[in-house]
Amino acid sequence: MTDEQGETVPAPQPDDPDQPLVSCGFRGDTVVKYLLSRSVIEGTELSDASAGIPQGDVKWAVSIDIGNDKDKAHPISPEPWTCDGDGNIVDEDDNVVDAKPAGEGDPCAGGEDDFETISSQLVDTERQFAIVLDGTVLSDPTMEAVIYDGKSQITGDFTEEEASNLANSLKFGALPIAFDKDVTTEDVGPSLAGDQLTAGLTAGGIGLGMVMLYCLLYYRGLGMVVVGSLFVAAAVTYAMVLLLSEAAGFTLTLPGIAGLIIAVGITADSFVIYFERIRDEMREGKSMRVAVETGWARARVTRIAANTVSMLSAVVLYIFATGAVKGFGFALGLSTLIDLAVLFWFTKPLVSWLAQFKLFNSGHRLSGLSRDTLGLDAPPARAATPAGGNA
After folding, report:
1. Which domain holds residue 66?
2. Which region holds residue 363: left if phi is over 0, alpha if psi is between -120 and 50, else beta?
3. Do 318 and 362 sit in the same domain of this protein?
4. Does any domain span residue 206?
C-alpha cells in the first residue's frame, strides 16, 4: 500500500489487531473505503449475537453481547480458578481467591469494560466504529449511547435475511468463499448405517410376507396372482433404486424405506379392488372370462383415480418438503408408478390367462371363486317325480 508520502509500505495483515487497516465494504450498492484504527475489542470477547425485532419496534436489528462470559478457567498455581458472576476470582470450590496473576490487572474484567470505554469516547464525537472479519467490514454503526454492560443493538434498515446473516457472521465467522445470488441448495439425508438398513428392510419383508399370507388365505388360487405381482413389483423397485443410485446418486434413507413399505399396501389394494370387481360380476351370473374383462373396466378407473391422488401427494411432498420428508415423497411416487405398471402389464394379463383353466372357470373351491366364496347358495336339487305321472 502507499502511505501519505507516496512511499510503498507493506500493508498490515487483516489478522494484525495492533495495526491500522485499510479495508473496503459495501453500504447498499456503494463501495466504501475505510481507514481503520487498531483493534480495540477482539472477536473472542463476543459472547452472543442474534437477529430479531425489538419489542415495540417494527424493524429488524442485531443484538450483540460482549464480554459477559466470565466462566473461563485461568491457570493460576497451584489450583485452577474462574470468575464468578460478580467479577470475583474463585477456585474450584467457589472460594474467593485473593491473589491475582501478576501483570494481568483485573483478570475478571471482560470486553464489556473495553466496550464501555470506547463507547464513551465515540458517543460524544458521533464517530463510527467498524466490525471487521477477515479484513472485510461487516458493519459500521454509529455509537449513540454509552454501553455499560456490553449489551447493545445494531439497528438500521435490515431485512430479515440481512440481520440473520450479520448475526451469524458475528457468531461463527464466515467461509472464505463467495456465493452467487442464484444459488441452489439441497438437503441430503444421511446414508443408512448397516443396522438401520437391516431393520428397515426386515420390517418391509415382514409386511410383504403378511400381505401375501393374507391374500393366499382369503383369495386362495387368486392369491397366487397377488404373490407373483408383489414379487414383480419388489424386483422392479429394487432395480430402480439401484439404477437411480448409480445414475443420479439416489440415497435410500429410513423415510424412503417407509415410503416403500407403504407402497406394499397400495399395491395390494389394487389387487383387492380388481378381485372384488370380478366377484361382483360373477355374482350377477357371468362366467369368469366375462367377469375378468368387465371387472377390469370398472377397477381400472378406480385404481387410476386412487393412484393419481397418491402421486399428487408424493409430488407435493417432494417439491415443498425438505430433508428426509423429500426422500419419503420420492419413494412413494416411484412405488405408485411401479404399482400401475405391474397392475396393467402383469396382473391383468395373468388373470386373463388363468380364466382359461377349468380350476378357475368352473368355480373350484380352491380357486377363490366358488359359489360358497361368492356368498351364493348351492343350486337347488331337482325334484324327482314318480313314473306314470300324477296319481
Report:
1. 21-75+110-172
2. left
3. yes
4. yes
**Three-class secondary structure of residue 82 per DSSP:** strand
Give yes or no: residues 168 and 202 share one domain. no
CATH of the domain at 258: 1.20.1640.10
Q: Are 362 and 264 in contact (CB under 8 A)?
A: no
Backbone conformation region of residue 91, classed left if phi is above 0, alpha if psi is from -120 to 50, else beta: beta
DSSP 8-state class, residue 145: S
* Residue 68 forms part of a structural domain: yes
Q: Where does 70-195 show beta strands of DSSP type E?
A: 81-83, 89-91, 131-133, 136-139, 151-158
For the entire predicted model, the pTM comes to: 0.47
Per the structure, the count of domains in the chain is: 2
* Residue where a domain terminates, one of 138, 172, 206: 172
How many CB atoms within 10 Å of residue 89?
20
Q: What's the mean pLDDT when you consider all of the chain?
A: 72
- The pLDDT value given to residue 337: 92
**Residue pLDDT, tens place only, 322-332:** 777 888 888 89
Q: Please check the confidence at residue 223 and state whether its pLDDT lies above 80.
A: yes
Backbone angles phi, psi at 239, to 5 degrees: -65, -40
Q: For residues 363 and 283, what is the distance between their CA atoms, to the nearest angstrom?
A: 12
In a domain, 56, yes or no: yes
Q: Which of 283, 278, 335 is nearest to 307 (CA)?
A: 335
pLDDT digits (tens, 9 = 90+) for 71-126: 444 444 344 556 655 556 665 555 555 444 433 445 555 556 666 777 777 766 65
Please, are residues 269 and 262 in contact by the beta-carbon 8 Å criterion?
A: no
Q: Each residue of 20-47: pLDDT tens digit?
A: 555 555 555 555 555 555 556 666 666 7
pLDDT of residue 279: 86
Using DSSP's 3-state secondary structure scheme, residue 18 falls into coil
Q: Report which of 239, 241, 215, 218 is spatially closest to residue 228, judged by C-alpha positions.
A: 215
